[in-house]
Amino acid sequence: MDDMMLSVKSLIYKYPDGTHALNDISLDIKKGEFIGLLGANGSGKTTLLRAMDRLIKDFEGSVHLCGVDIKTLTPKEIYKKVGLVFQNPDDQLFAPTVFEDVAFGPLNMGLDTKEVERRVLNALKEVELSGFEKKSVHNLSFGQRKRACIAGLLAMGHELLLLDEPTAGLDPMGEYKMMKLLHKLNKENGVTIVMATHSVDLVPLFLNRLYILSRGRVTRGGAPEDVFSAPDDMENIKLRLPHIAELIYRLKHEDNIPFERIPLSIGEARREIIKTLRPET
Ligand SMILES: Nc1ncnc2c1ncn2[C@@H]1O[C@H](COP(=O)(O)OP(=O)(O)O)[C@@H](O)[C@H]1O
Ligand SMILES: [Mg+2]
Fold first, then answer.
1. Exposure string (b/e) for 46-79, b if CB count within 10 Å is 16 or more?
2. Ligand 1, CB within 6 Å, residue ranges
3. Angle between helix 113-126 and 142-154 (nearest 10)
4. Do 156 and 105 form a contact (C-beta atoms < 8 A)?
5. Residues 6 or more apart whose Cβ sits within 8 Å of residue 114
6. Which helix (H) or strand (E) covers residue 232, if one does?
7. Do 51 and 216 form a contact (C-beta atoms < 8 A)?
8. Ligand 1 centroid to 44 CA: how many Å?
9. From the CA of 195, how far away is ligand 2's center (Å)?
10. Residues of the chain above pLDDT 70, percent
11. CATH number, domain 4-241
12. Is the pTM of this model over 0.85?
């Protein structure tokens, strides 16, 4: 149990207007994992992240953070470990300059100004925003604002980052760079990451495991290869397979090309195609 970061059991949440947003969700996230919550709009991803960060309090069921029920923790104790990056950076950024914004968290932790400065500069470097310290947050691009939000949490030294649609609204290169950044934070800095997304094409390349959410329930969970290996009900939950997997799946099942497995990336697909079409090589 020591390696458990977050354990969610039988989580049920109904908004005050009667909407059943979470219907009995259970999932476990181990320290060091990079986990995706994949689901169509309205499936409950944001609500689940907010419950994990205890921004939503009156849920049924339990959320344990490193083995401790978060209902017994103070907000300060939770925010020391867990950082939530909102979908829209403008809901998160508020200080006039990038430096002040990123410094806000560490200053509130009571660190001295030298340590705060060290952390801010480090965090900005991690997210490739060095040199932007004095810039107004309003003058950053959307992608830069998203990265500034992440820097603000990194500067606080969170062990667990919850990100709500970190790639939404970014151009294809921005999406790829964001995933590379998160991958690096996970692998090199050891940050456990949970990200909500509805983007199926990029995530399999980076995530260890994912949970599929539909109508407030987890319908499937596992490694991307396993989750995407049964595509039939993806449509029911308003998702699709990654494009490359869809193509190979159709070639296999509709055109009888005997692929052994369904690849999830261009690189894997290339190897699989060469192996299948030129078995002697
Ligand atoms: N503040 C709210 N009040 C009432 N219903 C809400 C509120 N926020 C979200 N919902 C509803 O809860 C469900 C889950 O929403 P949400 O968690 O935002 O899903 P996702 O992030 O996957 O798009 C949806 O049916 C949505 O309409
Ligand atoms: Mg959402």
1. bbbbbbbbbebeebeeebbbbeeebeebeeeebb
2. 15, 17, 19, 21, 39, 41-47
3. 140
4. yes
5. none
6. none
7. no
8. 6
9. 11
10. 98
11. 3.40.50.300
12. yes
207: left (phi over 0), alpha (psi -120 to 50) or beta: beta
Q: Domain-by-domain residue ranges, the chain? A: 4-241
Alpha-carbon distances, residue 124 vs 64, 142, 146, 169 (angstroms): 31, 16, 12, 21
Beta-strand pair 192-197/160-164 = parallel
Indicate which residue's Cα is closest to atom 20 of ligand 1. 42
Helix, strand, or coil here: 124?
A: helix
Q: Which amino acid is at 198?
A: H
Q: What is the DSSP letter of 43?
A: S
Distance CA(140)–CA(206), nearest Å, equals: 27
What integer pLDDT is reported at residue 277 of this predicted model?
85
- Dihedral of CA atoms 248, 253, 259, 261 in degrees, nearest 10, equals 70
Tokens of residue 81, six digits: 């470990």
Average pLDDT (83-102) is: 94
Q: Among 237, 165, 231, which residue's Cα sits nearest to residue 202?
A: 165
